[in-house]
């Protein structure tokens, strides 16, 4: 057992591997034969080796150490949605069977005393999803907290809302969104671990934006907010969390989430704010853009590998969302809730803080993504900034152009979606969701699916 088996193998440099590959390829260089680009943007090499790590590598730390002795080095919060038709009993059942946090949609008029009876907010995370005025939603929630005499420091979670929601959803000026944010910052002052708003990059990616553009526009949005609020930059960075929807490219999405954190850290430094990696909360949801209403059972596989990308990408909060969630069956919601448990209990992803650290490929991919997105954000600012791009429709136009390109590729079968445009399920196993026509105003960005055109033709033929 003491024998060093590696002693019999000579060290092979990257050049040695490239020379062998060139020999096998009859004189052609590997870079000539295996050229590729991630999302058509980031050049990828056919081989990454130790020599490609030309910069220091540090172990990623996504959260503070567990306060529980012997606790796992890696943890994330598994959240589920409280649907409109759910009762208090349904919520308690979910919390007793794997859920560790709640997504709570609020108009601001609900009876939380009845709905959340028996729920102990100091032991779970609660994220509010405003269905109207975010201030009214939080004030209702705050009244419930005060009735329960909850210690403000024990509350964890945030508000799944951004000032840009007023722009895209309400067709209002960004200034109104910033005014609402100022109120929320004041209202949440006594809740240090509860975030007042998020940078919602899913707004772009779920509408069909290029994955790099989704982060570019999200960071541009954050810069615009920083320049408009009256509070100190540190206060804003302490009260924001990062939100993202996962796509299909497994390694690309891991790199994109890790780059997102690093980009916000770099941005904070420009405002003389030093942030540790674990100070930024990353909220990840499984994306609907890459799912399909055709052969919908296959979405279970898609949401599982998206969740895997999220955890490896440093997610602090994981929201596995069934497609057409409000109409999903009890079984679909149970399966979605259990994905996190499988990754933890069977995938052992909680045993290492960041298993991707030191990966020759991922480390270089993250660095390339950071440079690419920082360059894009700089260009956006030089052209007048995020708000000007919204007002002129430049952002909406760019998102919709990329959406049309991808949807056309699936329609022409230049990209494959199992169960949708290739390998359809046999009639005995077909499980399709209802098809609803997509409507969107010129200045809006509405969530849709990459296979929407395929789905439209399929349902027309029925």
Please explain how this structure is put together.
The chain contains 17 helices and 11 strands. With 462 residues, it is an alpha/beta fold. The chain folds into 2 domains: 8-52, no CATH class; 77-366, Alpha-Beta Barrel (TIM Barrel). The chain has a 9-stranded parallel β-sheet with strand order 7-6-5-4-3-11-10-9-8. Strands 1-2 form a two-stranded antiparallel sheet. Helix 9 (211-228) packs across helix 14 (360-382) and helix 11 packs across helix 14 (360-382). The longest helix has 23 residues, at 360-382.
Averaged pLDDT, please?
94
How many domain regions?
2
Give helix % range: 40-55%
Q: Spans with pLDDT under 50 lasting ≥5 residues?
A: none
Shape: globular
Category from helices, strands and their pairing: alpha/beta
How many distinct beta strands?
Answer: 11
Amino-to-carboxy terminus distance? 66 Å
| CATH topology category name of the largest domain | TIM Barrel
Lateral arrangement of strands in the main beta sheet: 7-6-5-4-3-11-10-9-8
Q: Which value, in Å, is the CA radius of gyration?
A: 23 Å
**Which architecture of the largest domain does the CATH hierarchy give at level 2?**
Alpha-Beta Barrel
**What's the order of the H and E elements?**
HHEEEHEHEHEHHEEHHHEHEHEHHHHH
CATH superfamily of the largest domain: Methylmalonyl-CoA mutase
Write down the CATH class of the largest domain: Alpha Beta
Strand content: 5-15%
**Total count of helical runs of at least 4 residues:** 17
Describe the biggest sheet? 9 strands, parallel
């Amino acid at each position: 057992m003491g024998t060093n088996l590696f002693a019999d193998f000579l060290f092979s440099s990257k050049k040695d591997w490239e020379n062998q590959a060139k020999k096998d390829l009859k004189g052609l260089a590997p870079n000539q034969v295996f050229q590729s680009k991630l999302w058509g943007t980031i050049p990828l090499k056919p081989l990454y080796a130790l020599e490609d790590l030309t910069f220091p590598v540090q172990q990623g730390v996504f959260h503070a150490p567990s306060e529980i002795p012997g606790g796992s080095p890696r943890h994330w919060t598994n959240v589920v949605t409280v649907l409109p038709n759910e009762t208090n009993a349904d919520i308690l059942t979910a919390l007793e069977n794997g859920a560790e946090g709640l997504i709570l949609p609020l108009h601001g008029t609900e009876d939380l005393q009845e709905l959340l009876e028996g729920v102990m907010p100091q032991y779970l995370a609660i994220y509010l999803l405003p269905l109207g005025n975010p201030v009214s939603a939080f004030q209702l929630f705050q009244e419930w907290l005060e009735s329960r005499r909850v210690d403000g420091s024990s509350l964890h979670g945030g508000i799944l809302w951004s000032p840009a929601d007023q722009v895209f959803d309400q067709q209002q000026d960004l200034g109104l969104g910033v005014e609402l944010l100022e109120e929320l910052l004041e209202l949440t002052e006594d809740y240090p671990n509860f975030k007042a708003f998020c940078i919602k990059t899913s707004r772009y990616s779920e509408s069909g934006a290029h994955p790099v553009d989704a982060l570019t526009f999200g960071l541009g949005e954050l810069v615009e907010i920083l320049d408009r609020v009256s509070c100190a930059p540190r206060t804003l960075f302490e009260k924001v969390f990062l939100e993202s929807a996962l796509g299909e490219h497994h390694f690309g999405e891991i790199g994109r989430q890790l780059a997102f954190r690093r980009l916000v850290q770099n941005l904070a430094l420009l405002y003389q704010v030093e942030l540790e990696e674990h100070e930024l909360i990353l909220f990840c949801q499984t994306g609907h853009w890459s799912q399909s209403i055709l052969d919908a059972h296959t979405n279970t596989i898609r949401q599982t590998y998206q969740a895997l990308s999220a955890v490896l990408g440093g997610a602090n909060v994981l929201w596995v969302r069934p497609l057409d969630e409000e109409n999903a069956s009890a079984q679909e919601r149970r399966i979605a809730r259990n994905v996190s448990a499988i990754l933890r209990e069977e995938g052992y992803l909680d045993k290492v803080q960041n298993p991707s650290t030191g990966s020759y490929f991922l480390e270089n991919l993250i660095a390339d993504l950071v440079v690419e997105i920082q360059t894009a954000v700089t260009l956006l600012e030089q052209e007048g900034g995020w708000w000007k791009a919204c007002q002129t429709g430049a952002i909406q136009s760019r998102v919709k152009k990329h959406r049309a390109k991808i949807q056309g590729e699936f329609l022409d079968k230049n990209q494959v979606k199992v169960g949708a445009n290739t390998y359809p399920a046999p009639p005995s196993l077909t499980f399709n969701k209802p098809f609803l026509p997509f409507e969107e105003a010129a200045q809006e960005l509405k969530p849709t699916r990459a296979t929407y055109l395929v789905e439209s033709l399929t349902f027309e033929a029925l």
